[in-house]
Design brief:
- There is one protein chain.
- The protein has about 325 residues and is mostly beta strands.
- Helices cover about 5% and strands about 45% of the residues.
- It has 2 domains: about 220 residues, Jelly Rolls (Sandwich), CATH 2.60.120.890; about 80 residues, Immunoglobulins (Immunoglobulin-like).
- Strands 3, 8, 9, 11, 12, 13, 14, 16 and 17 form a 9-stranded antiparallel sheet that branches. A 5-stranded antiparallel sheet has the order 4-5-18-10-15, with no helix packed on it. Strands 22-21-24-25 form a 4-stranded antiparallel sheet, with no helix packed on it.
- The longest helix has 4 residues.
Amino acid sequence: MMKKLLFTFATGAFLATGAIAQSNLHNLNLETWTGNECTGWGTLNSYMAFGAPQTVFEETTDPGEGLSSAKISTEYWLGATSLGASSDTVSGFLTLGGPITGAIGLPCTTTPDSMSFMFKGEVVSGDTALILVSLSVYDTAQNTFAQGMLLVYDSGAVFLDAFGQQLSQITTNNGAWNSVTIPIWDFSFGALTPDSLQIICASSSGSLFGSPLPLIGSTIYVDNFFVPYFSSVGERDEDVKFSVYPNPSSDYFVIKNGSSKSDMDVQMIDINGKFVRSYTDVSGGEMTIDGNGLARGAYFIKVTSGGKQVIKQVVFE
């Protein structure tokens, strides 16, 4: 029965999680591995004992950052249709907190507005890879009320908005590492507080949604996840205490590091993940971003200082 779950998820059902693993609270940088398993994450590699292929690998030849990344591949699994799959070609999965056939996710009591990570796509033409973050709360069932999603194709990638509509396409180098920040859309508009957060990476989204059919050889690499305001799982914490004001603003933003006067690197990112402003080695712990030339709308401001990183959302009116 557990094996059949992988192939019978509907669009919303695969986000329903059971008990949340309490111990795997770190390794968002994917540096720690035991054998062919990434510590704190789930894969389908445990099903190799039942004839399944290995679909997640530790990548050490060309990691995005540090010494290790995760390589996720779509492979052929003879007999997968007997378990309910639409074909014997099966996506690889990397899921935070546990394998996708069971309980996934980690405890979370805040609603982050974005997630940053690195990815590299080697997706076969006609297939679609997926990287998804979602927030949920348990009532009589586990209800998802916020999510962000990146779809990766052979020619680029796109974000999905809160209604599942594609935003403007990101031009990527297929086969090269890309750094992105995707927005997390809160469908409850602040009315709900989460109890868990899930991250799902799949080399072929069709193994979740039913289409397109997974294609052998589709591969994505992921590394260095960061979820702001989520200290329970982040390698990087809130040691960087900074404020942005006024917010919203129609003229300028002041960024102030309340932790120290250490140099800062500051990046301003629009909701499509495009970097619109970048400042390096800002001294004195304070700076002003002039709004001249900025389009009206929401942005993310990413501040890195002393090896720590924080992201805040701002609105330019």
